[in-house]
Amino acid sequence: MPKKSLQLTNKRKEEVIDACEKLYLTKGYQEITIKEISKEISMSRPSIYNYYETKEEIFLALLIREYQKWRADILQIITAHEKLSPDELAHALSHTLAPRMLLLKISAMNLYEIEEHSRKERLKDYKVVFKESLDAFASCLKKFLPDLSNQQIEAIRYAFFPFMYGIYPYVYPTDKQKLAMDEAQVSYEQITIEDITYNLLKQLIH
Known about the structure:
Oligomer: single chain
Structural class: mainly alpha
Order of helices and strands: HHHHHHHHHHHH
Shape: globular
Number of strands: 0
Strand content: under 5%
Number of helices: 12
Helix content: over 70%
């Protein structure tokens, strides 16, 4: 594909992803359709289908972009610091996750359905980026906590990444969920993404 054509294709894909992201900030997953996305950017549905076969593939592309941003922030920690104490590392890593609300929301709320309705090659693209994030996380631990064994690092990863999937619904309960918790006398304290992440990491890496 000629360079200009590739640049235009990538630009159009980004426009579709941007529109999906904008809608997801104000609408529920089920409300968002390719028709709604096409209205947002004045692109016909047949044109969108040139890039993505399903709405789920658009969400998967959005998730890939979120993981790429998160991985870049983790790698920035590695290059920006020579040494970090366990507490400083916990703070630094939790800070990288704070802006990734969309990553956490998609992972917690819609990932299974998205994977189920995406082509295998698109799903592979996501798994590659996910693995790169796992590796960046491990590299960060290895640099700043050199006494950890590979088995310990693996145990931390297995504890941390599944934990990530539960962050969004805990930090952002709906009004209905809050009311139900009040009536059930379930204690609930408002907490940020950064705080809940730090609280776990400081236990895992100290």
